[in-house]
Amino acid sequence: MKFPAANCGLVLPFFARSVLAGATYSLSDSIVGEGFYNAFTFEAIPDPTNGRVNYVDQATAQSLNLTYATSNTFIMRADDTTVLSSSGPGRNSVRIRTNNQYTTHVAVFNMPHMPQGCGTWPAVWETSESNWPDGGEVDIVEGVNNVEPNQSTLHTSPNCSVPASGVTQLGTAVYTDCDTTVNGNAGCGVKLTEDYNSFGPGFNNIGGGWYAIERTNNYISIWFWERGDASAPSDATSGAATIDTSNWGTPAAYFPNTDCDLATHFDANNIIINLTFCGDWAGNSAVYSASGCPSDCVDYVDNNPTAFTDAYFQFNSIHIYE
Ligand SMILES: *[C@@H]1O[C@H](CO)[C@@H](O)[C@H](O)[C@H]1NC(C)=O
Ligand SMILES: *[C@@H]1O[C@H](CO)[C@@H](O)[C@H](O)[C@H]1NC(C)=O
Ligand SMILES: *[C@@H]1O[C@H](CO)[C@@H](O)[C@H](O)[C@H]1NC(C)=O
Ligand SMILES: CC(=O)N[C@H]1CO[C@H](CO)[C@@H](O)[C@@H]1O
């Protein structure tokens, strides 16, 4: 990062809370189209959240067309043709992790489409898998069963929370303690209540949009702009070589460092994109039935492959700035 706007230790607590600082950054990684295969590693691992999923490796994903790239787009989907045996593995899907790690940075995700459907649980997030939760976790986009809006959340080691009031953000805080050992690891989440097109079918109906994260040692901000939103900052939407986040307006979610030393609760993180089914959140029977989805989550996922035709991510680009 260059030119941090609020750099003075003495004034920081005041400014971090009342002023959304912002800074300028330069493009360091531009991930577009076939470039996703170089930037990411496929993780064919058992889903840690007990999903009804079978994460496949890159060769399998490409041969089954679960990932598909051209020079300017990347698609990542789940199997939508196979009826599953209830005693066999879950639905084939994909989980990818960046080869590069990032500390203070900005990432802009230009996404025309995200997975939708009953039982789906898509996520775009950042963590250090080998050092969780001490290395921190930021869930940028995450939700289940098409229910919008959804939320952006931090999960950390103890002694990290967000203020209960006085935070300038468009969304609505859920819990304030980010510690994974409290509230059943719910984390400190902010629902993107300002925009019901931020997730699921609403997002896809408008051609999606841009999610962005800015992580500094003073705050973590998340923005969402709908496609066609005239107020979306042109440096973010055009993939400019340099950006200035001080012009990006009030974030959807804002996590200041007032009650959390972000520098010690977050280390170098990878970006991870995954699509699972059911599992600890989407398949929780109360959550699943409250979303108006039919039958039982695992039965539905096993027996209705065509319900997952729209269970895919499409990315125009991911731009990283440092
Ligand atoms: C693979 O998926 C892409 C994107 O949905 C589609 O355009 C293409 O036709 C598919 N290829 C095959 C061989 O099915
Ligand atoms: C909790 O974090 C604060 C800074 O946010 C620090 O001053 C304090 O020493 C920490 N407490 C513990 C027990 O680590
Ligand atoms: C992705 O994996 C992480 C942890 O392994 C989990 O927190 C997240 O909810 C998962 N989501 C999906 C869609 O697999
Ligand atoms: C986990 C979570 O907060 N999911 C929520 C997504 O948004 C809907 C609508 O506000 C909530 O009902 C869900 O609980």
From TrEMBL:
Q: Which SUPFAM superfamilies match?
A: Concanavalin A-like lectins/glucanases
> Which keywords, in A-to-Z order, does the entry hold?
Hydrolase, Signal
InterPro entries documented for this protein: Beta-glucanase-like (IPR000757), ConA-like_dom_sf (IPR013320), Glycosyl_Hydrlase_16 (IPR050546)
Cited Pfam families? GH16_XgeA (PF26113)
Residue span of the signal peptide, if any? 1-21
Gene Ontology terms for molecular function: hydrolase activity, hydrolyzing O-glycosyl compounds
**Record has Hydrolase as a keyword:** yes
Which residue range or ranges hold the GH16 domain?
A: 40-290
List the GO biological process terms: glucan catabolic process
Q: What name appears for this protein in its UniProt entry?
A: Glycoside hydrolase family 16 protein
Q: What does the organism's lineage look like at the top?
A: Eukaryota, Fungi, Dikarya, Basidiomycota, Agaricomycotina
